[in-house]
Each structure stands twice: as C-alpha cells, then as structure tokens.
Write a structure and sequence with these properties.
By secondary structure, this protein is an alpha/beta fold. It is built from 18 helices and 13 strands. It has three domains: 3-222, HUPs (Rossmann fold, 3-Layer(aba) Sandwich); 248-316, no CATH class; 325-399, RNA-binding S4 domain (Structural Genomics Hypothetical 15.5 Kd Protein In mrcA-pckA Intergenic Region, Chain A, Roll).
C-alpha cells in the first residue's frame, strides 16, 4: 500500500469523533514522515490524579489514545503528580485547592492498572511530571514564564471571565498551563490529546515547544462525556461518574440509570456500535446492550452477562442477588442481639459515615429482609442470614 493511502486511512481513524483537530496538515506531514522513517509518533495524554478512579470520561480520551497505538504509534501517559499540587482552574470559577503529595500518591496507585484496561502496555510510556518539574531552578522557571505573555493567558475563557468579574487569579494558576506545556517539551510530544476543556492548555504546548526549538505538537480534543446526572460533564467531585474499575454490577447498574437522551453520546464515544444500529430498540434494551458492552470492555464478556443477569434479578424481578458479601456482626450486638440501624450500616461498610447512614434511612433506602427500615433511631434484632440492602445496589448478608 502506498504511503499516501496509509496516511489517509490513519487520518480517518484519528479524526473519528474528535471535537478539535488541528492543524490537520501538520499531522498529515507527521504521519507521512513517521511511515517513511518507520518512527512511531509520540502521542501524549496528561492525567490529573485528583481522585483514585479513572472514569468513563477518561475512557473517551484513552480509547482515542489506544486508536493511535493500534496504528503503530507510542502512547505517552503523563501523570500530573507535580502539576496537581498547583491546581488547574480549567473551567472553574475560582482557584482549585492544591493537593498534598500524600493524597496524590494515594490516587496514583492504581492509575497504571486502570489505564491498561484500555491501553496496550507494550506501546505505552508512563511518566510522572515530577521527574522534570520538581528539579527546575528558579532561573529555569523564570525562563519558562518569559516565553508567554499575560495578555495571551487572559484569552482563556475562565481567566478572562474572572478578570472581568474582579475575581482573584493567582500567578500560580498561570504556571499550570505553562508546566503542562513544558511536559510536552520533555516527552517530545508529536500529538497531545485532551478533553475539550483542555484546548487552551494544549495550544500553549505548541507555542512552548516552538520556543524550546521543537516542532509543535498537533492537538486533538474529544467531547466531554456527560455524567449520570444527565447535566454536567462526568466528574468524581460531582459524584456523577462511572469508574472503569468499578465492579461489573455497579457499572451495569449505573449505566441503566442514565437518562435515555445520553444513549447516542455513550454509544458513539465508548463503543464501536453505531447509534443508528440500536436507535430503534426500546430505550431499556438499548441501555442493557450498552451496559453489557461496557462491562465486557473492562471485565470480560462473561462478567457482562453476569452483570445483566444480576440487574434483571434484583431490579426487575425484585429478588436479592444470588451472590453477596457476608459480614460477621455477632461481636457488635448487645446482649439482646440488637444494634442501632445507623451503627449497623457503618459497621458493615455499606455506609461510609453515620451521616450517610442516617440519610439512607431517611430517604427510605434501607431494607432488612425486604422490609423498609422506618427511622434512624430503630434498633434491629439481628438473625443470622438476614439480608441488608442499602440504596439500589448494596447488599450484604449478616452472619452471627
């Protein structure tokens, strides 16, 4: 196959579902050179370790990165452990609080395993930007800041809005996009991927690479996936997320709770199934197919089938799941074999705190052997084998 045809075919794959893709002619030239020299492009994606889970929102961009790998290119996954200490305000109305190194380290622990549920480890470099940013001298930081102007920085929408409103913008916040751009210099990125909210930062990367004598990266942004609330972009801070490493039953259940109108976006950005192929199905059947497909991506086809069977048993037939965790509670009961329902929810781990436990009960979300608990003040006489249900998807069997 001639090189021109190969370039055209790669561009078709790369452009699919992309929101911003520029400059196209530069990527075309990079691809042509890559094929002639048999040198894979270096395709960068920065991951912000703000929380311990990668979500389906991350998966949208990771899938595009995997598409580059399948074309023979190298993925460079840059974990922003140093830049997260700064706090990127992209799209925010105020400064985002920095995180401690200890919090960041906890969040990063499982990133590699989660990312490799999508990426090919053999074609992936995982880097942490503390490798180079932590060792910059003040003179080098000043040299970096001298390569960009305040006027250009204020072209960013959220900075411009805050400046007009008189809201504080710290010099530290200006350093975030510069540091992210410097990452591109250090990994010699040919292409950088990101969500649509990162477009401005990615463009700065082009300028900074040129200032350091490198050929500028091409940028490609993907649409932001709407979360389970049906309104905002998927975010762990909002709680409207589905994690790529969540248990199959949890993933399946969350997908089934999505508003119907999100189906076209989820099929388009997270599967290879064209929306037109399923658009005529009943919305519930379309969701089941989507949920089974996504669970299979991260846990295997058998897990997808089991998750669907679990959902249908619990939520359609209203039966308890066939398998559930067992929790020993004998040593937390009083002499009459009783315990307060709030204490029981916390002790069994189905509620993370007493306030969450009280809220679950007040909202009618707690059942014991299919009978609703009426009040947070209730005391429960526990029998071995009782099934405790909290919310829609949390079940445990109580064992004495």
């Amino acid at each position: 196959m001639d090189i021109a045809r190969q370039v055209a075919e790669q561009l078709q794959v790369i452009e699919k579902n992309a929101e911003t893709f520029l400059p196209r002619e530069e990527l075309e030239a990079k691809l042509e050179r890559s094929l002639k020299e048999k040198r894979p492009l270096r395709v960068k994606l920065g991951i912000d370790p703000s929380a311990p889970h990668l979500t389906l929102g991350h998966a949208v961009v990771l899938r595009k990165l995997r598409a580059f790998q399948d074309l023979g290119h190298t993925a460079v996954l840059v974990v922003g452990d140093f830049t997260r200490r700064i706090g990127d305000p992209s799209g925010k109305s105020k400064t985002r609080d920095p995180m401690s190194p200890e919090e960041i380290e906890r969040n990063m622990k499982t990133y590699r395993e989660q990312a490799f549920r999508i990426l090919d480890p053999r074609r992936t470099e995982v880097r942490h930007n503390s490798e180079w940013l932590e060792n910059l001298t003040l003179a080098q930081v000043i040299g970096l800041t001298a390569r960009y102007t305040v006027a250009r920085m204020l072209e960013r929408d959220d900075f411009a809005r805050r400046f007009r409103e008189g809201s504080p913008i710290t010099i530290m916040e200006f350093l975030y996009p510069l540091a992210q751009a410097y990452d591109s210099v250090m990994v010699r990125a040919d292409v950088e991927l990101g969500g649509s909210d990162q477009r401005f930062n990615l463009l700065i990367g082009r300028d900074i690479q040129e200032a350091y004598g490198q050929e500028p990266q091409v940028i490609l942004t993907m649409p932001l996936l709407i979360g389970t609330d049906g309104v905002h972009a998927m975010s762990q801070s909002r709680g409207n997320y589905i994690g790529v490493a969540e248990p199959p039953e949890e993933q399946f259940g969350k997908i089934m709770s999505l508003p119907d109108e999100l189906m076209p976006q989820y099929y388009t950005l997270l599967t290879e199934t064209p929306w037109e192929e399923v658009a005529q199905l009943h919305p519930k059947e379309a969701k089941k197919r989507l949920a089974r497909t996504i669970v299979a991506q991260f846990h295997g086809a058998e897990a997808g089938e089991r998750a669907q069977a679990h959902f249908e048993r619990v939520f359609e037939e209203e039966l308890p799941p066939e398998e559930m965790a067992e929790v020993q509670v004998g040593d937390i009961l009083d002499e009459d074999g009783q315990i307060g329902v709030v204490d029981l929810l916390v002790a069994t781990g189905v509620a993370g705190s007493r306030s969450e436990a009280r809220r679950l009960v007040e909202q009618g979300g707690v059942q014991l052997d299919a009978r609703k608990v009426q009040s947070p003040q209730d005391r429960i006489e526990v029998r071995s084998g009782m099934i405790l249900r909290a919310g829609r998807r949390r079940f445990v069997r109580l064992v004495l």
